[in-house]
Each structure stands twice: as structure tokens, then as C-alpha cells.
Design goal:
Blueprint: E1 11-16, H1 18-35, E2 42-47, H2 52-61, E3 66-73, E4 88-90, E5 100-108, H3 112-122, E6 128-136, E7 149-153, E8 159-160, E9 176-179, H4 181-184
Parallel strand pairs: 2-3, 2-5, 5-6, 6-7
Antiparallel strand pairs: 1-9, 3-4, 8-9
Bound molecules: 1-O-pyrophosphono-5-O-phosphono-alpha-D-ribofuranose (PRP).
């Protein structure tokens, strides 16, 4: 059975294949490894849960040593979406002062999560903060997000897979697909 084939009836089409993801992860990791070749150790910061798949693949494709941290953030929900207020449910465990941080995100949609997170991390006095994002929906961000390394710009459609969920499902799909509207309507 192909991975994810049990979701076949619910996925309208694949927009990024497993092979395309693998190639892109390797290309981004090569650039980051090159750019930080002289850095003693990178600190990767991922945000639960969506970034887990990308973080796992990206960290293993790098050729520089890293440490990994994960944060859990409360969803800002509808009421707070205009303010971008985020609450930390799980913080990073280590001292990031003077460290080179690379934030690893699966998707930038409104950009509220990242714009909040970047401010938060910069307040902890790291040496630098860079952003690696697998997906971005252009034109959807409220504020400009400085993305140093981007996988793909994608259309504003309901995408799932490779960490992205709908109702906590589909995260394990090895590709990125568009959900059939009848599933979420
Ligand atoms: C998703 C995704 C990003 C964020 C992007 O997380 O993983 O962190 O939304 O959206 P934004 O640019 O509009 O802020 P979500 O809150 O759905 O949690 P999850 O990762 O656990 O699915």
C-alpha cells in the first residue's frame, strides 16, 4: 500500500511530490550548511506540530552540527488573529544568548506566528536569527517576514501533508496535497 493511499479519496491533487520535497530539502540544507560552515553549532528551532517532518529531514540533510529545540505555541484563534498574540505552551530549553538560531517552519500563511516568534527570539540576544520555511502563501502575510531560505510559494488553497493537518489528520502524508473542499465544508 502506498503511504497515504488511505486518504486518496480526500485529496484533490498533489501539488508537491515526495521527490520534489526531498530535492528541495537537500538544496536548502546545502545552502544553509554552506552559509554556516564556519559556525560552531547551529540551533534549530521548530514549532510543534507542523514543522516536525521538515525539521527531521532538514536536520539530517545538513552537514554542520546542530542542536534542536521545539516550541509549542497556542493558536491565536479567530479572536486574536488581528493582534497576532501568541502564548508559549512550551519554551526552548537552552540559553540562546550568542547562538545562531535557524527557525524551521512548515508554512507561512498569515505570518503571525513567525512575526511573533522572531520578535520573541530576537529578544533573547542570539547572535543571529534566520528563517527556513518549506511553504509560503504569497500575498497572505500581514507583515513582511524575512525568509532566508524558502522551499515553495504555493497558491492559497487548503493544503495538507508533510506536517500540515486538517483536524490533526494528514500530517503523515509524504507529499503536499490540496484537500477536497467537501472534506472541510
Ligand atoms: C500552522 C503552521 C505554522 C502556522 C502558520 O500551525 O505550522 O506554525 O500555522 O500560520 P500563520 O502564518 O498564519 O501564523 P498551527 O497553528 O496550525 O499548529 P500545528 O503546527 O500544530 O498544526
Amino acid at each position: 500500500m502506498d503511504p497515504g493511499s488511505w486518504y486518496a479519496e480526500e485529496i484533490e491533487r498533489t501539488i508537491i511530490t515526495e521527490d520534489e520535497i526531498r530535492t528541495k530539502v537537500e538544496a536548502i540544507a546545502e545552502r544553509v550548511s554552506h552559509d554556516f560552515a564556519d559556525t560552531e553549532e547551529l540551533l534549530l528551532v521548530g514549532v510543534f506540530k507542523g514543522a516536525v517532518m521538515f525539521m527531521a529531514d532538514f536536520a539530517r540533510a545538513l552537514t554542520v552540527p546542530v542542536k534542536m529545540e521545539f516550541m509549542a505555541l497556542s493558536s491565536y484563534g479567530n479572536s486574536a488573529s488581528s493582534s497576532g498574540t501568541v502564548r508559549i505552551l512550551k519554551d526552548i530549553d537552552s540559553d540562546v544568548t550568542g547562538r545562531h538560531i535557524v527557525v524551521v517552519e512548515d508554512i507561512i500563511d498569515s505570518g503571525l506566528t513567525l512575526s511573533w516568534l522572531l520578535k520573541y527570539l530576537e529578544g533573547l540576544n542570539p547572535a543571529s536569527v534566520s528563517v527556513v520555511a518549506m511553504l509560503r502563501k504569497p500575498g497572505m502575510q500581514h507583515t513582511e517576514i524575512p525568509v532566508s531560505y524558502l522551499g515553495f510559494d504555493i497558491p492559497n488553497e487548503f493544503v495538507v501533508g508533510y506536517g500540515l493537518d486538517y483536524g490533526e489528520r494528514y500530517r503523515e502524508l509524504p507529499f503536499i496535497g490540496v484537500l477536497k473542499p467537501e472534506v472541510y465544508r
